[in-house]
Design brief:
By secondary structure, the protein is mostly helical. It has a single domain, classed as MFS general substrate transporter like domains (Growth Hormone, Chain: A), CATH 1.20.1250.20. 78% of the residues lie in helices and 0% in strands. Helix 11 packs parallel to helix 16. It is globular. The N and C termini lie far apart (58 Å). The relative contact order is 0.14.
């Protein structure tokens, strides 16, 4: 047989091998496409549920639907700055114990699930309690106790949703985008809460409690429809062992403790949320609806800040982002030194809403990265408890400095900016594993 003559059997075998290789390549391509599609579908489903949960547990907080409560305390109950700030601090009491709630929800299934029915029942009970807030006597103590009861239920739903955001974000390498979406919804709440609060503030307080009760219920259909989770083992003595293991993991997690320390330093700066409200009303003579519009403006630019972080987190590592965010926060705070007119208020509140949201999303991203697997609810709850406790406590400190020590509003602004700037010194000491990577 000459060299030019081909063997038909060899040709057939080569053709079959080529066809098989093409088939394998097509199968791999289809599998990759299916994996991408499934990942996108899963992300969309969980993002929808997380968004609904964040809306229901954020919009109903008195610190978000703030104006009706501030107006009630200042005008009807004649509370001082310090008393008003203390009301918001104490009404959030349950939120400072989120780690215990995370420990409970991670370890003890409810009706065979770790997520669904915790969300459903906490929302239903919180709604009923909000209706009760509308009928209690109009005294400082009665309203405060009723709001603490509401917070006890809202913190359960918020903790479960936070655990979900960490769990899903880590699984699909999208902690930055998941938390950007969380903050998009949180700023949408601010955006809605401003004008809605201004509208409700000049009406009977019962309208506020009815509105909040209906909002609390809004997550229930999403939880029933979207949460598909395998049946969990019923609670038994092993749950206590699980809790012990989780606590041990928490204590040994240097990344989580370091991130918690950073949050504490960042938020402990003397706050001026309540002093700003009194300054707006008493000195600048702003109306409640106008203050609501300022909140709307801040929330609008906050959404822009959330979108901006979703873009930046895939192009810069977290270390560079934190340097940028803290620097912007210091500059944004110092702008309040020029807060002398309605036009200045609109510009400053807008830019601060964007800057504040950017650094808040960076903090949530850090929190999600620092949380060890298996204790998502507990770890994320710890970070948020540190945030809530120091942020609300800082507002009390700022209000107390004005009421007791006669510190001016503008001196408080300088003090806040200077304390925030100290965080730049701490960033280099954070674990590299948290700061060197970017979002996928």
């Amino acid at each position: 047989m000459s060299p030019e003559t081909s063997d038909p059997f060899l040709d057939a075998e080569a053709a079959a091998a080529t066809e098989e290789a093409v088939h394998d390549r097509d199968q791999a391509a289809h599998a990759a496409a299916r994996e991408v599609h499934d990942s996108q579908t899963s992300l969309a489903r969980w993002a929808t549920l997380i968004g609904a949960g964040v809306f229901a547990t954020t919009m109903t907080q008195p610190v978000v639907l703030r104006l009706p409560f501030q107006h009630l305390l200042k005008t009807d109950l004649h509370a001082s700055r310090e008393m008003t700030a203390s009301f918001f601090f104490l009404s959030m009491l349950a939120w400072y114990f989120k780690p215990f709630v995370g420990l409970l929800t991670d370890s003890f299934p409810l009706f065979g699930t770790r997520r669904k029915y915790y969300i459903v029942f906490s929302a239903v009970i919180a709604s009923a309690l909000y209706f009760a807030v509308g009928v209690v006597p109009r005294t400082y103590l009665a309203v405060l106790v009723a709001m603490i009861a509401v917070s006890c239920m809202m913190v359960v739903g918020s903790t479960v949703v936070g655990g979900l955001s960490v769990e899903v974000g880590q699984r699909i390498r999208a902690t930055g985008r998941i938390n950007s979406a969380r903050y998009f919804v949180m700023n949408a709440c601010t955006l809605i809460g401003g004008p809605l609060g201004g509208f409700l503030a000049v009406r009977a307080f019962g309208y506020t409690t009815i509105t909040a009760a209906l909002i609390a219920l809004s997550v229930v259909p999403f939880a029933l429809w979207l949460v598909k989770e395998p049946a969990a083992e019923p609670a038994n003595t092993r749950a206590w062992q699980t809790m012990k293991i989780q606590l041990g993991t928490l204590v040994r997690s240097k990344t989580l403790l370091a991130a918690s320390g950073l949050l504490f330093l960042l938020y402990i700066a003397p706050g001026f949320v309540t002093p700003l409200y009194y300054f707006q009303v008493d000195t600048l003579k702003f109306s409640q609806p106008f203050i609501g519009r300022l909140t709307f403006l801040s929330g609008s630019f906050g959404i822009l800040g959330a979108f901006l972080y979703g873009f930046v987190c895939r192009r810069m590592n977290l270390r560079k982002i934190f340097y940028l965010a803290v620097t912007l926060a210091v500059v944004g705070t110092l702008c309040y030194h020029f807060y002398h007119s309605a036009r200045a208020a609109m510009i400053i509140d807008a830019e601060y809403g964007m800057v504040y949201t950017f650094i808040e999303v960076a903090i949530l991203d850090l929190s999600a990265r620092a949380t060890p697997r298996g204790i998502e609810g507990l770890g994320f709850a710890l970070m948020m408890s540190v945030r809530n406790l120091t942020m609300m406590g800082a507002d009390v400190i700022g209000s107390s400095l004005m009421d007791r020590h006669h510190v001016s509003f503008f001196h408080l602004v300088w003090l806040n900016a200077g304390t925030t700037a100290l965080v730049l010194v701490v960033i280099p000491f954070l674990p590299k594993i948290l700061l060197e990577s970017r979002d996928a």
